[in-house]
Specification:
mainly alpha, 24 helices, about 550 residues, single chain, 3 strands, 3-stranded antiparallel β-sheet
């Protein structure tokens, strides 16, 4: 019994350590080593599934795992364990020392089903389901290596149940991931907000809780709230003397200031980060932002020295680094930012902050640097577009594309959908003509696809609201012999065909976006495309 208890506790601890090792390897871009430890971690967690079952079903009989007869021997023996609740009976190998550990088939997991231990296992299982379910198609080989099929709902259930008591060892970790899933994956911002608010109330000295809350507020476009949370997180981390963590949090606070256009506040933060960080993260893009802030605050003589180092900071697989390096090298070649670039970089920051009106106003100020007559309307621009494409210089095309992309996204954020579509279609006409900012092409396709998908969702919601209102009216009417009522009509065939047509257009846009190769922010866009296809298929099934 002592050996069994030791085995159960050691397996859970080993699973956590293997998972930590895999994350460290992925962070250092050692993807093969990371995948190896990731798989080992999953197999160890998988062996403990009967422990979860025993805790959740205490009245059932002896809870054990069944084993496969396939074994491999090196310094350890690998036994394949599966449970009656698993969806698949694929080979699942578990490494263990057979000289000291009893076979899992003989373990009575019911004896060791403690709440704290189960919470740790559920956290690990939920984390795996979440990570694998979010993988883009190019990384699905990881799922095949690990040997299971994950889904986001399973992740949500596991992480949620791992938080059933605030005193359990993995409750705060699970709540953080649970909140991230609710916000970023399921789009339930209010639920994520409630979870994070409960966390900061429960752990008022935790820098990580305030930090994640600040990140989510930034993504929501609540920049003032984000800055407040980040400032609190920085204060807590400095009090705890967390070193590099404090430096990272301060850098993220600086990014919030950058999105607000507070260029002078950004400078000392990034200077401190670049001078003290031991990480490769943010060095390239941080240097680019620092140079821009120098430019906007009149410290132009400092930029060349900073930008000369940027090429050495580039991590090839990181699109933010490639973008920053390209812009830095262009600056060194031309000797400065153009008037258009000044406005466009600021407008792009305001767009990221979801300050759509400020982004729109700022980018419209840049039009005068493409065309002398800055009073031209969108229709005037459309009429002369063909001549512009044929006659203008390459840089004018690049600027024209960026102008319409930022303006189109800003229009969309302000619910001016038709204007947004017009601008984004201007961008698409530049396909094959852009050399620098090629990323705006696939991004424009996705923006247009989302406009079509959302219009169908909005139309269905409006129809449901009308039907609900009609039903309520029917219920409240006095039932008399003279009064005859009919139920509200379902969606008409013509309306259904219109919705299907919109979804097919959206499907075409998404497929076009998928056809592009390497471009800036491709990983972010690939995830959006995946989510958009899920929405699109859901709506098609309804119709």
């Amino acid at each position: 019994e002592k050996k069994e208890k030791t085995h159960v506790h050691t397996t859970v601890a080993s699973a956590e350590l293997e998972l930590a090792l895999s994350l460290l390897n992925f962070k250092d871009h050692s993807f093969v080593k990371g995948a190896y430890h990731f798989r080992k971690s999953w197999k160890l967690y998988e062996e403990m599934i009967p422990l979860v079952n025993a805790f959740e079903n205490p009245n059932q009989g002896h809870s054990t795992s069944t084993s496969n007869t396939n074994t491999t021997t090196s310094n350890t023996t690998t036994t394949t364990a599966t449970t009656s609740t698993e969806k698949s009976t694929a080979n699942t190998s578990i490494e263990k020392n057979t000289t000291t550990v009893p076979p899992p088939t003989t373990i009575n997991f019911k004896k060791y089903a403690e709440a704290g231990l189960v919470s740790r296992v559920k956290f690990g299982l939920g984390l795996f389901h979440m990570v694998i379910s979010l993988l883009p198609p190019t990384f699905l080989w990881m799922a095949e290596i690990i040997g299971f099929e994950a889904d986001k709902e399973s992740a949500l259930q596991m992480l949620g149940s791992a938080t059933f008591s605030p005193h359990l060892p993995r409750a705060p970790h699970s709540t953080l991931l649970f909140a991230a899933l609710e916000h970023f994956i399921f789009g339930r911002a209010s639920k994520a907000d409630d979870l994070l608010q409960s966390l900061v109330n429960r752990y008022p000295s935790s820098a990580i809780c305030f930090f994640l809350y600040g990140v989510i507020k930034r993504v929501e476009g609540k920049i003032a709230d984000s800055a407040s949370m980040m400032e609190t997180a920085l204060q807590k981390s400095l009090q705890a003397n967390t070193g590099q963590l404090s430096l990272m949090i301060e850098y993220e606070l600086g990014h919030v200031y950058f999105l607000q256009g507070e260029w002078a506040l950004v400078i000392p933060i990034i200077e401190k980060y670049l001078g003290n960080t031991k990480s490769k993260n943010f060095k390239c893009y941080g240097s680019f932002k620092l140079g821009y802030c120098y430019w906007m605050t009149g410290q132009k003589e400092k930029i060349a020295e900073i930008y000369a180092k940027v090429n050495g900071f580039v991590r090839p697989n990181f699109t933010f680094d490639r973008l920053a390096n390209r812009k830095a090298q262009k600056f060194l070649k031309t000797g400065g930012f153009s008037k258009f670039d000044e406005k466009a970089i600021a407008a792009a920051s305001f767009l990221e902050a979801k300050d759509f009106k400020k982004a729109m106003n700022t980018i419209e100020e840049a039009l005068q640097y493409i065309y002398p007559d800055s009073n031209m309307s969108l229709l005037d621009l459309e009429e002369m577009f063909t001549n512009f494409i044929e006659d203008s210089q390459q840089q004018a095309r690049e600027n024209w594309g960026m102008y319409n992309y930022i303006l189109g996204c800003s229009f969309r954020g302000c619910d001016m959908v038709e204007n947004a579509k017009k601008c984004l279609n201007f961008v698409l006409k530049l396909e094959g003509l852009l050399q620098e900012e090629t990323y705006i092409l696939p991004h424009s396709y996705v923006e247009l696809a989302e406009i079509e998908i959302n219009s169908v969702i909005d139309e269905e919601l409006e129809k449901e609201n009308e039907q609900t209102s009609d039903r309520q009216e029917v219920i409240t009417k006095t039932e008399t012999a003279e009064t005859k009522t009919t139920p509200p009509e379902t969606q008409s065939p013509s309306s259904t065909q219109t919705c299907i047509s919109k979804l097919r257009w959206a499907e075409g846009y998404l497929k076009k976006a998928q056809g592009f190769g390497v471009y800036d922010f491709d990983k972010v866009l690939n995830y959006r495309i995946k989510k958009d296809f899920e929405k699109l298929n859901t709506e098609l099934k309804k119709l």
